[in-house]
Amino acid sequence: MQMDCTELVGEYEPRKIYSFLSTAWAYVADCDINSEAIRCIGSPRFTMWGIYRILFLRKYMGIFSYNGFQVKNKD
Fold this sequence. Notes:
By secondary structure, this protein is an alpha+beta fold.
């Protein structure tokens, strides 16, 4: 049986993390975590923070590796 599995190795995390469903990184995770600052407005906070993040983009550092081939962010 084949399975789509992702292995995550963090810069400051000594252990490997495996995910077989989905991994949210960068934009989606930013909207989820940082929208806590406006939790008081309820569920629209995700939409509001998403619009804010589109207007004020930021760079997310990381390295993507697939079968030994690596892609790094360029500054």
